[in-house]
Design a protein that fits this description.
The protein is built from two helices and ten strands; from the N terminus they run αββββββββββα. The protein is an alpha+beta fold. The radius of gyration is 16 Å and the shape is globular.
């Protein structure tokens, strides 16, 4: 009899993905434990300081739950929650060693996050299956990735957590 497939989250895996994030022009890297067609998405998201996550929200079809759960395994992030006009409603520091280590956002919550430490690693959980065309709704008022305006915005956001 063949033993069941076991997927492990090891330090070696974390180190490998962190290295990939350091070498990425986007300064981040995902590692999926799930297949894109699966009902539950389970993945690591490794962020390096300076990465830009354009403010967005998730809307799922009526039969799906649009929550998004973040658990910081290593390092720390600054979570920024906004209204649909991009006005900041609140900020929260989430840290592997802090008082808040995870957070769940409800469907439709506009958010972004900033890496506050090198090799920050987040375990994210949300309902699937993944649909690349409709997974995120970006706020049009914010710059696209790779622009000088995006870099300036990240620097400003990091200042909220200094």
């Amino acid at each position: 009899m063949q033993p069941p497939q076991i997927k492990r989250l090891t330090q070696e895996l974390l180190d490998t993905i962190a290295q990939q994030a350091r070498n990425s022009p986007r300064q981040r890297q995902n590692y999926n434990f799930h297949d894109e067609t699966e009902k539950v998405q389970r993945f690591l998201n490794v962020l390096q300081p300076g990465t830009y996550v354009r403010p967005h929200r998730h809307h799922r079809p009526a039969a799906m739950n649009g929550f998004e759960f973040f658990l910081v395994l290593q390092g720390e992030i600054g979570m920024i929650v906004m209204n649909e006009d991009g006005k900041i409603l609140y900020t929260e520091r989430i840290s592997a060693n802090g008082s808040t280590r995870g957070i769940e956002l409800a469907e439709g919550t506009v958010h972004t996050l900033v890496a506050l430490a090198p090799d920050t690693i987040i375990l994210e959980l949300k309902e699937g299956p993944y649909n690349s065309r409709g997974d995120k709704e970006f706020l049009e008022a914010f710059p696209t990735e790779g622009t000088p305006a995006a870099t300036q915005l990240v620097e400003k956001w990091v200042g909220y957590f200094a």
